[in-house]
């Protein structure tokens, strides 16, 4: 009996690690599926679910982020993936924190510009929209190129993580670079959020008299800005810490689900899918949406 107990205990950590590995992949794939469904919904039912390009970009960055973590789904824990596959994943894993953080801040800036337009009646120019869409990819591209350069110059630095969930690099330069970029983005986001909250506080009386649902708008602003800041903070911790366990990886994998739940439960998205179930076609916008029609890509400043 004693030898059997020892063998059973010896295999428990491996079984637990394998379970956490598949839970991690499950969260990432669920977040990926949810983001794809939301992107599809907004693209197909544009009249019911109008969204700003920064919102589409936000969803695309989460699709990229979730996809980057599931490269090794079909690779057993005891087997080393190919160098090309492992390097590609490591480079993406280091670059997606700044990508999702930048997309989140772009969405926050869009909220600020939308609120400013509502209060002043002045719409912002098209180049603002272009900057909000392209901006998040600039720091991510820098981290991606640095990671690929290190991985190609030092092939032995590319390795599978201790938890066997994804690949990473042994040098800490990509980690430090990504951490610095995310920290800078975080400071910008904090500043913009303070301005948003100040404007909401000062204009609360005006918003209450507005015929739009001001309370719902404020809740949405608070919800996704809080989740966005959590994303940035956790991404910063991920990049700064040289070692982190499977529990932290699972926490990271829950973030896409949080974004999907916040954005996927909006009334207009539910209405769009409800129309399929009822086999009914909507000809015009039915529900108020977060993004006013006046802030789309074709709008110019008055």
TrEMBL record:
Keywords: Membrane, Transmembrane, Transmembrane helix
UniProt superkingdom: Eukaryota
Coiled-coil stretches: none
Membrane-traversing stretches: 22-43, 55-72, 92-115, 127-150, 177-197, 218-238, 244-263
Protein name from the UniProt record: G-protein coupled receptors family 2 profile 2 domain-containing protein
Species for this entry: Mycena belliarum
């Amino acid at each position: 009996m004693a030898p059997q107990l020892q063998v059973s205990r010896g295999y428990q950590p491996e079984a637990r690690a394998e379970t956490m590995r598949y839970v991690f992949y499950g969260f990432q794939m669920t977040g990926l599926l949810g983001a794809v469904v939301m992107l599809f919904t907004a693209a197909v039912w544009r009249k019911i679910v109008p969204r700003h390009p920064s919102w589409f970009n936000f969803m695309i960055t989460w699709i990229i982020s979730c996809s980057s973590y599931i490269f090794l789904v079909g690779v057993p824990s005891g087997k080393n993936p190919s160098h090309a596959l492992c390097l590609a994943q490591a480079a993406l894993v280091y670059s997606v924190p700044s990508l999702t953080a930048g997309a989140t801040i772009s969405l926050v800036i869009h909220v600020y510009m939308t609120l400013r337009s509502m209060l002043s009646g002045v719409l912002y120019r098209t180049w603002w929209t272009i900057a909000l869409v392209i901006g998040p990819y600039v720091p991510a591209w820098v981290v991606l190129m640095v990671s690929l350069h290190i991985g190609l110059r030092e092939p032995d630095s590319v390795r599978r993580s201790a938890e066997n969930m994804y690949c990473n690099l042994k040098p800490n330069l990509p980690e430090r670079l990504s951490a610095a970029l995310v920290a800078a983005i975080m400071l910008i986001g904090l500043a913009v959020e303070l301005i948003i909250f100040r404007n909401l506080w000062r204009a609360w009386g005006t918003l209450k008299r507005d015929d739009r649902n001001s309370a719902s708008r404020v809740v949405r602003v608070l919800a996704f800005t809080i989740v966005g800041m959590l994303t940035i903070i956790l991404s910063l911790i991920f990049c700064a810490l040289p070692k982190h366990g499977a529990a932290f990886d699972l926490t990271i994998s829950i973030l896409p689900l949080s974004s999907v739940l916040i954005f996927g439960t909006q009334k207009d998205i539910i209405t769009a899918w409800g129309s399929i179930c009822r086999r009914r076609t909507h000809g015009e916008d039915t529900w108020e949406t977060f993004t006013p029609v006046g802030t789309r890509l074709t709008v110019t400043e008055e």
